[in-house]
Amino acid sequence: QVQLVESGGGLVQAGGSLRLSCAASGRTFSNYAMAWFRQAPGKEREFVAGVSWSGISTRYADSVKGRFTLSRDNAKNTVPLQMNSLKPEDTAVYYCAADRRRVVVTPDYEHWGQGTQVTVSS
Predict the structure, then answer these.
(1) Euclidean distance between the first and the last CA atom of the chain, given in angstroms as a whole number
(2) Cα–Cα distance between 78 and 59 in angstroms, integer?
């Protein structure tokens, strides 16, 4: 089993930046595809970004392309999400997810973190 813990959320003004981190524990962390999802009140959980187990292949939701950068550090067992040029519509609870297979854009992952709140004020 993989345990995921998100951190780095908070309150930021529009145009500002935040750096989220997903800390993962488990014997086979390096073999897991990792992804970030977010969910705003009254909305479905939506895909934000994902990275393959190799760290080479990444994909982003259209709404965050050019603003968010996802990477992974297998040595530290962390998956940072750098969020720049934040907009009020980025406000949501952000969840880290892990799966043994490839990155998918639907919330069909084996493991989930508890989430971290990101609030962007206008």
Answers:
(1) 40
(2) 18
